[in-house]
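re: that chain from earlier
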Amino acid sequence: MKEEWDGVDEWRGEWDESGSRYGLSFTSFSDHRDGTEAECRVWIQPEGIAERVILSHSLVKLLGPNVKRDLVRSLAEKSGKYPWATVIEIACQRALGSWREGKPAVDLADVMVTSQKWIIEGFMPDRVTSSIFSDGASGKSYIMTACAVAIASGIPIGPFVPLIQGNVLIINAETDEHEYAERVARICDGAGIAIPRGLVHQEQLRPLVQSVRAITAQVKEVQPVFGIIDSAGALAHGSLNNDDVAIPMTNALRQSFGPIGRCLITHTSKASAAQENGHGTAVGSAFFRNYVRSQWEARRETDGNPTTFSVALIHIKSNRGAKQPDFTTNFDFDDPNGPVTLYRGRITDNSDLARYASKPAHITAVLLKSGALTLTDLASETGMSESTLRRSMREMTNIIAFPISDGRGGRGLQTTYGVRS
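^ sequence. v structure.
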């Protein structure tokens, strides 16, 4: 038997017997408490026939004697006398060994060192898993749709500047292709461009761990440069707060997309949704949150106009290099069903959103809105302690401190803080 392992999620074996070609494959491996499962396909290509005939397609426990016995019985009924028991046992053992061994070890001296590359400049990195999270109806899906349009067209859409152009694969468990196509059309209309080719949408109705083979097949066919997964909660096989759910899902994501950059859209935890300042936390276990290499939080302003509003994008985490500057994406909906225009804004120009960003951004936004303030007044406006403000402002180069009279006619002076012009 000639066997082949793709290093990720497919084991294949082929052999010749009595003029016919036989083969079987195992894909979509998944580990469970009672053993490892995989999809098994067995085929035959009889002599003189150009096409293969599927003899069996089933889910097999690789160490499960009952399941393998049933498979052998089924194959014997379809193809007559043949030592299927021996063939299936050998194939299961070798496939399981390949799966458990995983990818081969490499000497790091032989690995070419490269710097972080970006799909969307300063926002979406290449080759790794990113995530964006927010409360419902905050604009995160529209933001990632704008990124998809930018990548497929090679044209900047608002703040999102593509550095690589190519196909985008959208795995969507929240909307169908009609709703997503409408969103794409409105963004393209707002940008004044035609809808680009290469935005490939796949509605997904099964958990991600059960869809590895289907998504892997789409990746091979579409050849995307980026993937979008919407959303983590809808594609999880249970609660993401449970590591028994989160770990298989993240492994399935890596199996499906391989070295292709991808963004996982997810939601804000209940505790963070109600907080009044500081960045929030995504749903899921600590492992699930730490699994992503780059993470952004989206916060929509609370009192914005429903057709013209801003969404803060706050960089929570970066595993490779410094965190990127926070900014706002400003939305302009011309009418309820018309074009959507996006443009970049400074987060310090919006004090309502800056309170969720870094301390320096929050301090700057308050001083820009209110003008120069004493330390006491600044503490009242920001909700920070005076000691926290002092520590933060010592590191800020855009802050200037100057004395002013205490207003009582004496010689008392108070230190006041303002933003350099």
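The longest helix spans residues 84-101.
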